[in-house]
Amino acid sequence: MLDVRQYFQATNPSLTLSIDNEEHRKYYIDFSSVRGGQIIEEMCSNITFFSPDEPTCQLFSGHIGCGKSTELSRMRAELEKEGFHVVYFESSDDLEMGDVDIGDILLAIARRVSESLDALGAPPKLEESKGFRSLLKGAAELLQTEIELSGEASIPGIGTFKGSTEGDFSAEVGVGGLGTVNASNEGLSFVALGIGKISAKVKESPELRSKLREYLGPRTASLLDVINNELLEPAKAQLKAHGKAGLAVIVDNLDRVETIPKPWGRPQPEYLFVDRGEQLSQLNCHVIYTIPLSLLFSNDLNRLTSRFGTDPTVLPMVPVQHRDGRPCEEGLVLLRQMILARAFPNLSPEERLAQLTEVFENQETLDHLCQISGGHVRELLRLLNDWIKKQRKFPLTREVLDKVVRLRCNQMVNAIDDEEWALLRQVEATQRVSGGEAYQVLVRSLFVFEYHVEDESWFAVNPILRSSPQLQEG
Question: What predicted TM-score, i.e. pTM, was given to this entire model?
Answer without folding.
Answer: 0.87
